[in-house]
Specification:
By secondary structure, this protein is mainly α. It contains nine helices and three strands.
């Protein structure tokens, strides 16, 4: 079973010399907001993240001006450079897993031609001779387990280059923890490797559609609530308040008209 991993956000010490941080690092408000946004974006990756409630506008604008944050529509944002950083870490994990699989496929031999290691080898990867406990109990995936290790653990077969490319695409489009969870669920439903990844991809697409629909419903409900609140405020206004508001609007329109050439 994969050793539990404590999720983290990486921040390099050299940022204090980065020209983008010249005005960010010395300012507590700017730097605190950057760290907060980075953590939230790291947790949401590969999807964009939602801007926290009551974000300090001046600090957010400064982060955008220096090229650290891109604000998107509907109150969402991305941290510049995070995609490249996460894909680099993902590739390192893939390479490390591939190295372990190769070691497991080619066990060391003693002088008399026998394996020097027992079926469960030194690097912790399960052997073909004896299924691991994790294989017998596929639901017990370790926290932080990569999709590549999950595929090996479930199928007891090193993924081919085509499978690695497929898993990379799934993890680029979905949180890797979700990919692993769906892989385990689909393998429990059917351990047929022929259509395994196809079923995983279909299930992930259904989850994504459900999340999109839920987000759209939430946005519509929020808009309906705001319109209803505005209607109630308008109904509760006295005639004098309505007159003052109308006069203020007329004055504002007149002022804008005068300022135009």
């Amino acid at each position: 079973m994969t050793k539990p991993v404590d999720p983290y956000t990486r921040m390099y010490w050299r940022l204090i010399d980065d020209e983008k941080f010249v005005e960010i690092y010395p300012d507590d408000h700017h730097f605190a907001l950057y760290v907060r946004l980075l953590m939230a974006a790291d947790m949401s990756w590969p999807a964009s993240a939602s801007l926290p409630f009551a974000t300090r506008k001046a600090s957010l604008q400064k982060l955008c001006d220096v090229g650290l944050v891109d604000v998107l529509a509907s109150g969402r944002y991305r941290i510049r450079g995070l995609d490249a950083e996460r894909r680099k870490r993902q590739q390192k994990a893939s390479n490390a897993a591939a190295s372990r699989w190769e070691d497991d496929e080619q066990p060391a031999r003693s002088a008399n031609g026998t394996d020097e290691h027992p079926p469960s080898n030194a690097n912790g990867m399960p052997s073909r001779a004896e299924p691991s406990q994790a294989e017998k109990e596929p639901s017990q995936a370790g926290p932080g387990e990569s999709a590549f290790d999950a595929y090996y653990r479930l199928t007891i077969k090193p993924p081919s280059q085509a499978v690695i490319a497929w898993l990379n695409r799934l993890c680029d489009a979905n949180p890797e923890a979700t990919v692993v969870k769906v892989m385990v669920s689909e393998w429990q439903a059917s351990s047929n490797p022929a259509d395994f990844l196809g079923r995983v991809q279909t299930r992930l697409a259904a989850i994504a559609r459900h999340q999109t629909q839920a987000s759209e419903r939430a946005a519509k409900d929020r808009g309906d609530r705001e319109r209803e609140e505005a209607r109630k405020r308008a109904e509760s206004q006295t005639p004098e308040q309505r007159e003052r508001i109308a006069a203020f609007k007329a004055e504002a329109v007149a002022s804008i008209g005068k300022s135009m050439p």
